[in-house]
Amino acid sequence: MRLNFGQRAVAPLTIALSLATGASALPVASLPTSSLDAPSAPTPTPPENGDPQQRVRRFLSESAPECTGVIQVMGERAYVACGAKGVLTLESRAEGFVIVERRPTSGEAVGFFEQDGKLWVRIIQERAEVVGSTTPLGPVGPVVEPVTSPKSASPVTSESSSAAPASANAAVEVVGKVLEVNGLDVSVSLGTADGITERSRLALRSPNPDDESARRVIGRILRVSEHRATVRLGANEIVEVGDAVRATDEPITASRVAPDRVSGVWAIRGMLRPILNIGSVGGGVLGEVQASWRSSHFHVGASLEPVGIASAKSNTIAPWSVYAFGAFDSWLFSAGLGLGAQSVNDTGFQTDAGSGITLVQLLRIGAVDGLHLAARSRAVIFHSQTDFSGLEVEGQITVSSDAWLIFRGGGGTLGYGYGEIAIRDLISGNGRANSMFLEISIGGAGVYRDACPPTPIVTSFDVCQSATVGGPLVGVGGEWRL
Q: ∠ at Cα 80 (75, 84), nearest 5°?
């Protein structure tokens, strides 16, 4: 046989995995039963004394001469490795041996061993590779680590099932590797040929125990084919191409409520919210920009939020606030302070609009990329006195491994107020460096001024400035982590 690749033909390269290097193994008790090669009626042999192995050989020479492989005697039953014909099961009865069943294997049966109270058959599989390349062309047998049989053998029961469970595959350490990482989706070199199903879970970890990524990551199967599977991880979980992959019964490590905290990254976030005025022709926009750095225990940065401008009936209003901040930041809690300046457009009677020094308090309870409630309050030093100047609140709920629902709103004497519902989506990366988030929101907002400058005549309100621009908003923004 020849394998064609374009205009070239390459002879097949056959690799037989020997017992010494850990040939693939399947539990004898969980192989499907086939009656294709079974005789029409059992052929008993007369009872006789002597070594059981010799008695089985003598019976095989008469009733199944094609089976000349390794024999494993277990109580009243004997199992014979029949090469490409699979496993032959015999039972000793008063009248002699009889053939109970023939079981096919996915490769050439060459021997047996006991593990975890079960009898396993060693098999040899073939695969083809392009000469000079490591890319497999045909069916690839699983990479199997050697398993040492227990020193003392114990009786094995013959339990039947249609397929080997994932835990059985894990017992013989069927090992694959990560082939490709695309955001939260990871392609691995294990598939249905290795006992993997859509209900399986896979453990991935770096082969380097000194690496941060050496922590085990357990993912769920999204799609599986014969020799390949796609695994979905959680936000901020780390795997790399070449990491080892094994089947496991352990629970999935991804958490929607409290995923791992990201550290050692810069984050640049921005948001624009166009506002359509209700009433006279007009409108405006509210926006925000923030650049910050998260270290192991702290979060520091600078914010321009909010910043906006709105106009209607020749009235123009421009609320703004800028400050630098620092906060102690942990997995499920953050608290800090900020200092800067802000506008004051809501002053009340006998005070003109202006600006002052602002003190910002920051608090978050919950995970940054999980379920959390965050608040930002402001105080302003304005005209030689300190006043409360605003409050913004944000609540976030995780709806999938890469999407969040956000409720956000607030306002204050800066001269604005708003409320919105937003969807945040991870569009690239895994939540760590080189990740991008997209955010889209709908809601409503108002930008206003209410100030009355002092005048010589207290009863005169002609100089008071009162204006409001407000209506529905549609917001769009994003975050880039680098």
A: 155
Number of Cβ within 10 Å of residue 369's Cβ equals 25
The SS3 assignment for 298 reads strand
Q: If you search the block for the tokens 């020479």, which residue do you land on?
A: 61
**CB 145, CB 23: distance < 8 Å:** no
Q: d(Cα 323, Cα 389) in Å, to the nearest integer?
A: 14
Distances (CA, A) of 469 to 49, 285, 288, 392, 462: 104, 10, 19, 20, 21
pTM tops 0.85, yes or no = no
Q: With beta carbons less than 8 A apart as the criterion, state whether 74 and 89 touch.
A: no
Angle at 421 between CA 416 and CA 426, to 5 degrees: 120
Neighbours of 39 (CB within 10 A): 12
* C-alpha–C-alpha distance, residues 261 and 263, integer Å: 7
Q: What is the pLDDT of residue 206?
A: 59
Arithmetic mean of pLDDT over the chain: 80
Maximum distance among all alpha carbons in the chain? 129
Residue 44 preceded by cis peptide, ω within 30: no
Closest CA to 65 of 82, 43, 86, 90: 82
d(CA 58, CA 97) in angstroms, rounded, equals 10
Which tens digits make up the pLDDT trace of 400-450? 999 999 999 999 999 999 999 999 999 999 999 999 999 999 999 999 998
Q: Is the pLDDT of residue 151 over 50?
A: no
What is the CA 105 to chain-centroid distance, rounded?
34
**Between 68 and 45, the higher pLDDT residue:** 68
Instruction: DSSP letter for 192, please.
Output: G
β partners of residue 307: 287, 320
pLDDT of residue 165: 41
Q: Report angle CA 226, 229, 234 to the nearest 5 degrees.
A: 165
Q: Is 415 left (phi over 0), alpha (psi -120 to 50) or beta?
A: left
For the chain, first and last CA: distance in Å?
52
Residue 241: Cβ within 10 Å count: 11
Cα 204 to Cα 212: distance, rounded to the nearest angstrom? 13
Q: How many CB atoms lie within 10 A of CB 17?
A: 21
> How deeply is 28 buried, as exposed, middle or buried, from its count of CB atoms within 10 A (0-12, 13-18, 19+)?
buried
Q: Rounded CA gap, 322 and 302, in Å?
A: 8
